[in-house]
Amino acid sequence: MLRIVRCLCILLVLVAVSCSNKYTQVIPVRSQMLLSVDLSQADADEGLQKQLLSLTGGVQLKAMGIDVSQKLYAFATDDGLFGFVACVDSKTIVEKWMEHAGTPLKSHRGYSFSDIGNGFIAAVGSNALLVMGPVSEGSMSSVQQRMVRYLNSDSDNDITATELFSVLELTAAEGNIALAAKAKALPAMIAPLVTLDSIGSSSNVYVTATIERNDDVLAINSNIYSPDEDKAAKLAMRQERFRPLDGSYSALMTDSTAVALFVNTDGTTLLHLLRSSYATKMLMTGMNTAIDFDNIVRSIDGETALAVASMSTSNPSFRMDAKLSNTNFLSDVGYWKKSCPLGSTIFDEGHGAYVYQWPTGTIHFGADATNNDFYAYTPNYPTTATNVATAMEGHRLCMAVGRKAMLPQEGVAHALLTPFSLLFGDASAMVWRVK
Asked: What pTM was computed for the model?
């Protein structure tokens, strides 16, 4: 009898650990970004629970057949696909959910597949649910073959043995939603802004983050990490050039803002940062056609905010406010007036205030020499502010993305949000903040 009990206990242990030992093997070993969600903490973490429900349409994950005692993982591949891997508690229930959420099940190589919409395919085996996308109609067959290969992976080719996964596990000790990404894999538009330097594009540099839901704002608490001591020292020195924010210009983040950048540093450092990012470099190029915007930025020393609602080159919508160390650039306005491109003009609007007009748009700009405040804005920039001030105070850099950026569009917001769009849920804003 004792022998039978021992055998039953061993069997129960094997059943209990079977999923945890196998489902992580589904994650592609060459993933460039990993995200983990500790589902076991959802009951105790109100923000996490709210976020999960907003992503599943109010359906509890357990009711979908997911084992909520194990972590949910998301990943990004080196060719731009995104995926989710969850431990299966009941394959039958998962299959019912797949049929309800998508197309009728199709069996392929022993796995059940369904097109669940928005370009994503779901496949389930006995241990793991794998969702991947976005997939075009023409590539669906090849992606299905990849998914079968991932589902058939064994322990000899396991993501858990990689440095990226180790970095993720270290980060997960600080929060229930954790992110680890190779800095060189971040979109070129935003990598310098997230890493505070172009050094982030080199190897052995990781962007880590914990993610939390505070009221209506999804906060991404980011850090920059490298196991290489020399690179780590350079990153630390670079980070010290950015001072903590006090949220002076948080009102620039509106309901219609696509992306807003908030920093507190000197003009030379800020100019280097803006030139390193393709997105901000495009905006600066447009400004520099008539105004020496580089010279204005060099005059900055303090909190700065740049908020963009539209990146249209013909009719942009943005606002910028900053603290200056001096207003010496105002003496150059006379020259700017004389050297305007054909069809454009600069004229006075008041003391230290000017208007730059071209056939399709207008920019108001100026400086208050008394308070050393600089401003530049387009008349079409929205004015209704959102409450993100508390989400950015005390951090060295914040990049906020508004709900509008969830709409299909090109440019900064699209590049930033693609990896995180499925995490956004019903939050009104996402704030990426660097410690």
From this structure: 0.80
DSSP-based helix, strand, coil % in the chain, nearest 5? 40, 30, 30
Q: Tell me the sheet residues that pair with 363.
A: 356
**Do β-strands 82-87 and 259-266 pair in parallel, antiparallel, or remain unpaired?**
unpaired
Task: Please check whether residue 259 is in contact with residue 412, taking contact to mean a CB–CB distance below 8 angstroms.
Answer: yes
| pLDDT 10s digits, 112-140 | 999 988 788 999 998 999 999 888 888 98
- What 3-state DSSP class applies to 66? strand
Q: Evaluate whether 340 touches 346 at the Cβ level (below 8 Å).
A: yes
Residues 6+ apart with CB under 8 A from 237: none
- How far apart CA 269 and CA 301 sit, in angstroms, is 10
Give the list of residues 6+ apart from residue 224 with CB closer than 8 angstroms, or none.
183, 194, 195, 196, 200, 205, 206, 207, 208, 235, 239, 434
Span 22-48, pLDDT tens digits:
799 999 998 999 999 999 988 878 777
Q: Residue 195's Cα: distance from chain center in Å?
A: 12
DSSP 125: -
**Gap between the Cα atoms of 272 and 293, Å rounded:** 13
Integer Cα distance of 180 and 300 in angstroms: 33
Q: CA-based diameter of the chain, in Å? A: 99
Torsion of CA 137, 142, 144, 149, to 10 degrees: -170
